[in-house]
Design a protein that fits this description.
alpha+beta, Transferase(Phosphotransferase), domain 1, 4 domains, six-stranded antiparallel β-sheet, three-stranded antiparallel β-sheet, 11 strands, 11% strand, globular
Length: 486
């Protein structure tokens, strides 16, 4: 397949490729009349094979243009023109210098709480405007949310949006993205704006927990959406989240429409109330996010999804002035790293060494390094104290490796009887589990052990609850360490 760029689409000159999807290519273009950059969404010529397909695709394009044409909001990508150039249908829209949230999460799976609240609050504000104008999106997901270096969110892709009282033909009977579709979308019931609120609840869950609430094959996801309640997001996050968010997520993801938030505005108010509760118990949880923090986050996304130079595209890239390569650990000043490692170890224990080793590969200065490491500390006041200590100038000598080992608590040695599967819970079992989980998950381990201890009726159930509460890729290792040796 040729990757040659078209020189022009409609009146727009083309300078690069922003992305490729199932339907077509999105180009970066330039409007010579108004002198501004634009994004040009096109349709693959191979899809224009028969009249039925042309009609369907054209209907989707017209639908997107009509839907966005009803809305004027800074958080929604503006559409300038719907057109046809020879055999290519296209939409010219606002060019956003940024990355989509899917790319961001690939580079930074667990964002800071202030960033999470900012993203979801902006999305709800945009949806409130759309819903009041009779438009519901029906495909809210990370790939359709763009973030700029200033932390501004832009909602895009209204191709399957529903316009109230417009009588538009639906593209398919069941439309949306598995995992983000509300129950009524799966079973073909009437859909209204609350389907969007369900999807925002799924997104909020993912941002808080670092994982999706519904996982597996599409059929498994559908069954979970229709029949199962997801565990509270606070029980999964390696970075402690306030339990007040659990109630917000639960209401947003309610399976029955009357139980969900009535509007995006109500959802937004509930989120703000939960953030205030988190603030009162967790110090600086929801302070404003500095522009530098957004830029670092988007730079990591750029690393996760580099733009191919062969396509001649600058892409939707933020921070072109950022360094073209990252500092290798060996390029860092050893005494500085030792001081930071020693400071972090006083909060998270012996895992500090591995956290520093991992973070240093994606950070280029001390401030960005300490900001990334601070995310492993659950309590807000302790996070700030660590950053103050780690960023302070110091003449400290390098931290000997033995110093980190000395911070390891004296191992708890459970008795042979307490390791039997049918053994009742005891303090030494809980202490052993806390040590094992802390090495993998950090300070969230104490919360997981406490909750599992309250729910379990014996050692076997206790261990299963702990393992289920951990990320899937950690479970095999944790089971081997928690279960008695055979």
């Amino acid at each position: 397949m040729s990757h040659n760029l078209p020189q022009q689409i409609g009146k727009y000159t083309i300078s690069g490729v922003l992305g490729r999807g199932a339907m077509g290519v999105v180009y970066k273009g330039f409007d010579p009349h108004i002198q501004r950059p634009v994004a040009i969404k096109t349709v693959h010529k191979s899809l224009l094979g028969d009249d039925g397909e042309i009609d369907s695709i054209a209907a989707r394009f017209r639908n997107e243009a009509k839907a966005v044409g009803r809305i004027a909001h800074a958080g929604i990508v503006a559409i300038y023109e719907l057109g046809q150039d020879e055999s290519t249908a296209f939409i010219a829209m606002e060019f956003v210098e940024g990355r989509n949230l899917e790319q961001v999460l690939a580079g930074t799976p667990l964002l800071g709480e202030a960033q999470v609240i900012s993203i979801v609050d902006q999305l709800l504000d945009a949806l409130d405007c759309a819903h009041r104008n009779g438009v519901w999106h029906r495909d809210i997901k990370p790939a359709n949310l763009l973030l700029t270096a200033d932390g501004q969110l832009k909602l895009t892709d209204f191709g399957i949006a529903r316009i109230e009282n417009a009588g538009l033909t639906q593209i398919a009977c069941v439309i949306g993205t598995p995992g983000y579709m509300a129950p009524e979308q799966y079973i073909g019931d009437d859909v209204d704006h609350r389907a969007d609120l369900f999807a925002v609840g799924v997104l909020l869950y993912h941002l808080l927990a670092g994982r999706a609430p519904f996982t597996g094959r599409p059929d498994q996801v559908m069954y979970q959406v229709l029949n199962e309640e997801a565990a509270p997001p606070s029980s999964f996050a390696s970075q402690a989240r306030h339990e007040a968010y659990d109630a917000v997520v639960s209401q947003a993801m309610a399976k029955h429409l009357p139980q969900r938030f009535a509007s995006a505005a109500d959802f937004r108010q509930a989120l703000a109330a939960a953030a205030r509760l988190s603030d009162s118990s967790d110090g600086n949880a929801t302070v404003l996010v500095e522009k530098a923090q957004w830029l670092r986050t988007l730079t990591h996304a750029k690393q996760a999804f580099p733009t191919p130079k062969s396509q001649g595209s600058q892409g939707n890239v933020v921070g072109q002035s950022s360094p073209t390569h990252l500092a290798h650990p060996s390029q860092w000043d050893a005494p500085t790293l030792s001081r930071i490692e020693r400071s972090l170890a006083s909060y998270v224990g012996p895992m500090a060494k591995f956290m520093v080793r991992d973070a240093v590969r994606s950070c280029t200065d001390v401030h960005s390094l300490t900001s990334a490491l601070a995310l492993h500390i659950g309590e807000g006041q302790k996070r700030q104290k660590f950053m103050d200590e780690a960023n302070a100038p110091s003449q400290a000598t390098p931290l000997p490796r033995t110093a980190v080992r000395q911070l390891t608590p004296t191992p708890v040695a459970p008795s042979a009887a307490s390791l039997r599967p049918d053994a009742p819970l005891s303090d030494d079992i809980k202490a052993h589990a806390t040590q094992v989980l802390t090495r993998q998950l950090g300070p969230i381990a104490k919360i997981l052990v406490k909750r599992a201890g309250e729910r379990a009726h014996g050692r076997a159930q206790f261990l299963e609850l702990l393992i289920e509460a951990c990320p899937e890729n950690d479970r095999a290792v944790l089971r081997a360490e928690l279960e008695p040796s055979k």
